[in-house]
Amino acid sequence: MSIGSLLNTAKDSILSYQLAMDLTGANIANVNTPGYTRQRVIFTSQGKVDVGSLRVQVGVDVALVERLYNQYLDNQLAGQYQMWGYAQVKSDVLSRIEGIFEEGEGGPLDVLNKFWDAWSALSANPQGQVERENVLAQAENLTAALQQLDGDLTNLVKDLGDNVNQVVEEINSYISQIADLNVKIGSYAVDRGETNLLKDKRFDLLTKLSELLDVNYVEDSRGAINIFLRDGRPLVTGGDAWGVAVKQTQAETMGDIVYRDNPTISLKEAMVEGKKGKLAALYEVGESMVPAYRQKLDDLAFTLTEVINAQHRQGFDGYGNGGGDFFITNQGARDFSVAQAVMADAKRIAASSTVLGDGDNARLISNLKDSLVMAGGLATFNSFYTTLIGQVGRDVLDGKNNLNHQESLKEQFTNMREATSGVSLDEEMMNLIRFQMAYNASGRLVTTVNQLLETLMEMAK
């Protein structure tokens, strides 16, 4: 080997170990950077020299900068983000519903009890104007409470619809950025590690997208990831992003999800049926759970109207006239109200079972509190509503338990990934010392070659 070749070998070695130290420094600097994947230098020997009858590899070069990751763990973590996103939103929304149904003074159960008590007091003094006004006041409180509940749930669904619009905007942003990164990553004919940081950013975007909806993805031969819904319809193919949009179909629904450029194709079912991601949770609560709660409120309002009106018509009011309707409703809880005639005059309350002005009809209406008229004859008004509150409470508890479980799994998968892809300061410091020693040795080789050259020059004089 010539002295010039030896000098080139030393130069290549210095440059290679300089890069190794730079990369080690980058790993150390990013020890706390979320989503950063540890990198390492892969060295390769280069060049050849004849030594006697042997041909020996000499010199060193950096073959590539390797990104340390486990594809299986990455897939598992992205899938877990889908489960966690679903659990998080469902738990949060159910907690809000729990607040809507929170019982206390002035709540439906409280005013329902006061409503029955008011009828009982009226039965003891059927001619008392104060007792009649109290029945009317408690009836108004009851209708207002059910209307308020229904209104709060209606507003909640509208808010969930707004959240769906926001999630769709986020989906479009993420898939657009992922498609752009696919193009940048694929632009390298040979990738020796130049795209590692781009791949880190893309995986971060993929996990954020996974929080939102149920997706599958595959990586092609050029390094691009293609993203599909569970039914195979694409969201990202190479450098193309298939944007989505919300299409309103009915005034009280949360809308359909379609391709932005082809609104005739519905994507909602594929996005939500797997119960993964925030979008699925929003639709499940808004289009399944809340309507079920509202239906029970409607059942309560309809049955109260039917049963109390039937008994009220059997009695006589303060004028000796036959009783009419006490409650009215056409749509359930949302328009549940006291009949206009009773609202205008409390003496229209039919407290008596005869024209003589007794309080027997008021007593019979009060006794309806204990009648098994709800849930197919299995529950009273009060127990029916208590069961509804209990159902909401169980749903909230199930949501919290599921969230805790999914958070635990997410943390577990994250720790497993960090064990492979995360930065260990102890390991990096050892690498830094090792590369520094090699760098210094390469420098000593340059010094030695320089001394050899000086000796030759002296000999040539």
Can you walk through the features of this model?
It is a single chain. The protein has about 450 residues and is an alpha+beta fold. The chain has 3 domains: about 5-65 and about 425-460, no CATH class; about 75-100 and about 155-285, no CATH class; about 105-150 and about 290-395, no CATH class. The protein has helices at about 5-30, 70-100, 110-125, 130-185, 195-210, 270, 280-310, 340-345, 360-365, 380-420, 425-460; strands at about 40-50, 55-65, 215-220, 225-230, 235, 240, 245, 255-260, 260-265, 325-330, 335-340. The strands form 4 sheets. It has a 4-stranded antiparallel beta sheet with strand order 3-4-5-6, with helices on one face. β1 and β2 form a beta hairpin. α2 (about 70-100) runs parallel beside α7 (about 280-310). The protein is rod-shaped, with a radius of gyration of 37 Å. It starts with a helix and ends with a helix. The model has no long low-confidence stretch (mean pLDDT about 90).
Features:
single chain, 461 residues, four-stranded antiparallel beta sheet, 11 helices
Element layout with pairings:
Layout: H1 3-29, E1 39-51, E2 54-67, H2 71-100, H3 108-124, H4 129-186, H5 196-212, E3 215-219, E4 225-229, E5 234-237, E6 240-241, E7 244-247, E8 256-259, E9 262-266, H6 268-272, H7 278-312, E10 327-328, E11 337-338, H8 340-344, H9 360-367, H10 381-421, H11 425-460
Antiparallel strand pairs: 1-2, 3-4, 4-5, 5-6, 7-8, 8-9, 10-11
Helix pairs in contact: 1-11, 2-5, 2-7, 2-10, 3-4, 3-9, 4-5, 4-7, 7-10
